[in-house]
Design goal:
Layout lengths: L1 E6 L3 H8 L9 E7 L2 H10 L4 E5 L7 H8 L6 E6 L4 H9 L4 E4 L4 H26 L2 H13 L5 H11 L7 E9 L11 H19 L3 E7 L2 E8 L10 H15 L4 E5 L9 H12 L2 H4 L4 E2 L11 H18 L2 H17 L4 H21 L13 H7 L4 H24 L2 H15 L6 H7 L4 H12 L3 H19 L4 H7 L5 H12 L3 H7 L1
Parallel strand pairs: 1-2, 1-3, 3-4, 4-5, 9-10
Antiparallel strand pairs: 6-8, 6-9, 7-8
Helix pairs in contact: 2-3, 8-9, 12-13, 12-14, 13-16, 14-16
Length: about 525
């Protein structure tokens, strides 16, 4: 499934493109939408989209400048949307490596044809890349990975050691598991290319420092395994795995400007027990959750004590939420300090801490909703917060995440407390009068006054005796009548000026409102 980014300044056009067909049926999934080229560039730097479908004419940054900037760091496939008069722009787009173009309004059959063509291109690109990477190096890495996981039999081991140049005689071996702290970090602003360059640089440093004494291979996207095969009977002093790990940490931080955490496995003496060393390195690295980034871990994390974790989690949750309801910053800070102490104590497992954070997050959303405030600015409604919690690597990350949420909610609650209903109503009326010519909605206004849309809708109707949408329609129609009476502007110009992107929709609403068509109304005055 290929991720798609749609770049289009017209909300209606974006929506129609999104729902024009079943994207997954053709091997795609729309993962992002942007209103202009500048916003799209920022999104491309934090997520890899295989396909970008972009309009040419947009405010802030148009399609062609966007594509030109995009090509400096991404090889994503690009399809441009163009009108009948924009063929010169389409030609320039093709020079920038655009895969194809679509005429607006987009026809379903044309879109399917282009998507199939682009998918063939992406499939071939992926297959070629995979084939290039499957060389001797990949086969070597695969063998070492299977070896440390205990999946290699003696006969295969003997054959591969000769083929890959592995020393036949060694006295001790030890696995070091190197985890790159910046991969999947909560707040990383690295592009895919930057991340790949850093991973490559870190592998080079590991290989250079260990020299002929060890073999480096990729365990996963965020981890490298270093298998040390020592020719001496013991691994002591400067040759010890711990000393080597310290040297790796210092060098990587110095030259790559990133930190790593390293789990050091127990030394073993036979090829068949290498898997035991790897397993102990994994267990040691589990301690990173409590100890944080940039650490060297030589023994498994201390075991969780036998206690009622659910009861402890619930008491911490209640403690934080009750402090939030007091609106006292000092009490909230005190509750958060107690929460951090429990997180760092080792009394709770990693899973229990994550569940606890999610429960507190849920209760915070209820507190905000009960206060009539908007949740959209504080809580990600597309499971983004959930993903951030579940992929957190340390208890420090989780604590900082929930502490930031608590302080943001506290600030919002104070702002809501200071707002008077009449003052809010007057503010909303002013915003609608200033913005009714744009794509305004109850939700967008609610965000501007930091309120829940449903709560704001009730408050507005209680003060105006009509709903928000009725009031906005009234403003638009009265302004349209005024323009029809006093100007010679064309109807489509007036429709756009009062906030209607679709002329047919304006005609329908105007006739429902006045009882006559726009043309008849103008003729009557």
């Amino acid at each position: 499934m290929y991720d798609v980014l749609i770049v289009e300044d017209e909300p209606i056009a974006r929506a129609s493109l999104t729902y024009l067909l079943d994207w997954q049926k053709y091997g795609y999934e729309i993962k992002g939408e942007a209103e202009d080229g500048q916003q799209a560039l920022e999104m491309m730097k934090t997520h890899y989209y295989s396909l970008v479908i972009t309009d040419i004419r947009m405010p802030v940054m148009g399609g062609l400048p966007f594509i030109e900037e995009l090509r400096k760091f991404s090889d994503a496939a690009v399809v441009i949307l163009t009108g009948y008069g924009d063929f010169e722009y389409a030609r320039q787009g093709l020079k920038l490596g655009v895969q194809d173009y679509l005429l607006k309004p987009v026809d379903e059959d044309d879109l399917v044809a282009v998507l199939n063509k682009v998918k063939d291109h992406l499939d071939l690109k992926y297959k070629t890349s995979k084939q290039l990477n499957l060389g001797v190096s990949a086969l070597r890495d695969q063998f070492f990975k299977r070896w440390v996981h205990g999946q290699v039999k003696r006969l295969e081991f003997e054959e591969q050691t000769k083929l890959l140049g592995i020393p036949e005689h060694w006295h001790s071996s030890c696995c070091l598991l190197v985890e790159m702290d910046f991969i999947h970090a909560l707040h990383t602003y690295l592009t895919d290319r930057e991340m790949e360059l850093k991973r490559f640089a870190i592998r080079n440093i590991i290989e250079e420092i260990c020299g002929d004494a060890g073999f480096v291979f990729e365990e996963s996207e965020e981890r490298y395994t270093l298998l040390i095969l020592h020719s001496e009977e013991s691994l002591q002093g400067e040759a010890s795995p711990t000393s080597l790990a310290e040297k790796l940490c210092v060098s990587i931080q110095q030259f790559v400007k990133e930190t790593v955490s390293i789990g050091v496995g127990q030394p073993v003496r036979t090829w068949g027990r290498v898997a035991e060393s790897f397993t102990s390195a994994e267990a040691a690295l589990d301690g990173k959750f409590l100890n944080g980034h940039n650490t060297i871990l030589t023994s498994p994390a201390k075991p969780i004590e036998d206690l009622d974790q659910a009861h402890l989690c619930h008491s911490m949750e209640v403690n934080v939420i009750e402090a939030m309801k007091t609106l006292q910053s000092s009490q909230v800070q005190q509750a958060l300090v107690q929460l951090k102490e429990v997180f760092k104590s080792g009394l709770l497992s990693e899973k229990a801490i994550k569940v606890n954070v999610l429960e507190i997050l849920l209760q915070l959303s209820h507190v905000v909703k009960d206060a009539g405030a908007s949740q959209t600015l504080l809580f990600d409604d597309k499971l983004g917060d959930y993903e951030l919690v579940m992929r957190s690597k340390t208890s420090d990350d989780l604590y900082q995440f929930i502490a930031d949420k608590c302080m943001a909610v506290l600030e919002l609650l104070h702002r809501m407390k200071d707002q008077q209903p009449n003052k809010v109503f007057d503010t909303v009326k002013r915003l609608v009068q200033e913005q009714f010519h744009t794509q305004i909605s109850l939700r967008s206004v609610a965000q501007q006054v930091y309120m829940n849309p449903h709560y704001l809708g009730k408050l507005f109707k209680a003060n105006a005796n009509i709903s928000f949408n009725e009031y906005m329609l009234q403003l638009r129609m009265e302004r349209a009548k005024e323009l029809l009476r006093l100007t010679d502007k064309k109807v489509y110009e007036i429709a756009q000026e009062v906030g209607f992107g679709e002329l047919d929709w304006f005609y329908k609403r105007f006739k429902n409102y006045t009882g006559v068509s726009a043309g008849e109304f103008r003729a009557s005055v």
